[in-house]
């Protein structure tokens, strides 16, 4: 089974806990490794922030999703 990672924007950080805004919903996740800031676009896997995503890449993904 394949999984699609939708990027979201970090809107809150408290210690290792973040709130990620996906537009239609907000979810909590944890930072285990790396440096992240409010405003960063990230992907989350199993409740853990996995990577930072470039804003240009996010715009491309959203365009594809909107056309579907």
What profile does the largest beta sheet have?
Answer: 5 strands, antiparallel
Shape: globular
Distance between the termini: 20 Å
Number of domain units: 1
Strand arrangement within the widest β-sheet reads: 3-2-1-4-5
Query: How big is the Rg?
Result: 12 Å
Mean pLDDT: 89
Total DSSP helices:
1
Q: How do the helices and strands follow one another from N- to C-terminus?
A: EEEEEH
Structure characterization notes:
The chain is α+β, with helices and mostly antiparallel strands and 68 residues long. The protein has a single domain (8-67), classed as Roll (SH3 type barrels). Helix content is 19%, strand content 41%. The chain has 1 helix and 5 strands. Strands 3-2-1-4-5 form a 5-stranded antiparallel β-sheet. A hairpin with a 2-residue loop joins strand 4 (41-45) and strand 5 (48-53). The chain is globular, with a radius of gyration of 12 Å. The chain starts with 7 loop residues before the first strand and ends with a helix. The relative contact order is 0.23. The model has no long low-confidence stretch (mean pLDDT 89).
């Amino acid at each position: 089974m394949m999984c699609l990672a939708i990027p979201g924007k970090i809107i809150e950080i408290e210690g290792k806990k973040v709130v990620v805004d996906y537009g239609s919903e907000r979810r909590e996740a944890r930072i285990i490794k790396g440096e992240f800031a409010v405003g960063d676009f990230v992907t989350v896997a199993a409740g853990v922030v996995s990577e930072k995503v470039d804003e240009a890449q996010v715009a491309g993904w959203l365009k594809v999703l909107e056309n579907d």
